[in-house]
Amino acid sequence: MDVVEGNGVREFLNGNFMSHITLGFGTAPAPDEPFEFLAGRIGLFHLGHFCSCRLVLEEWRLGSETQLR
Q1: Strand ranges inside 1-69, DSSP E
Q2: Which domain holds residue 61?
Q3: How far apart are CA 33 and CA 28, in angstroms?
Q4: pTM of the full structure
Q5: Is 14 domain-assigned?
Q6: Which residue of 22, 41, 43, 64 lies most exposed, with the fewest beta carbons within 10 A?
Q7: Confidence at residue 58, expressed as pLDDT on a 0 to 100 scale
Q8: Does the residue 2 lie in any domain?
Q9: Positive/negative CA dihedral, 12, 16, 21, 25
Q10: Amino acid 57: pLDDT
């Protein structure tokens, strides 16, 4: 796989990437079909460039992974 250079991309490859869902403020598009996912923790973040999670402000563990809708 070719790696994109610049913008710190290498920093988030392989084990350094943590999947997340970002919620924002603004006009929402038409809703998609509901989906379910598992979460072991939730967090509140200060957002950086392009709404990246720049700084953890607070984090809550949910115990064993919790199924969310």
Answers
A1: 37-47, 53-68
A2: 21-68
A3: 14
A4: 0.46
A5: no
A6: 64
A7: 93
A8: no
A9: negative
A10: 92
At 53, list the tokens.
Answer: 């999670």
Q: Please indicate, yes or no, if residue 29 is contained in any of the structural domains.
A: yes
pLDDT of residue 1: 45
53-68 and 37-47 strand pairing:
antiparallel
Report the first-to-last Cα separation within the chain, whole angstroms. Answer: 33
pLDDT tens by residue, the chain, 69 residues: 455 555 566 666 666 666 777 777 788 788 888 888 888 888 888 888 777 788 889 999 887 766 666
CA pair distance 37, 67, nearest whole angstrom: 6
Tell me how far the alpha carbon of residue 38 is from its chain's centroid: 13
* Three-state secondary structure call for residue 3: coil
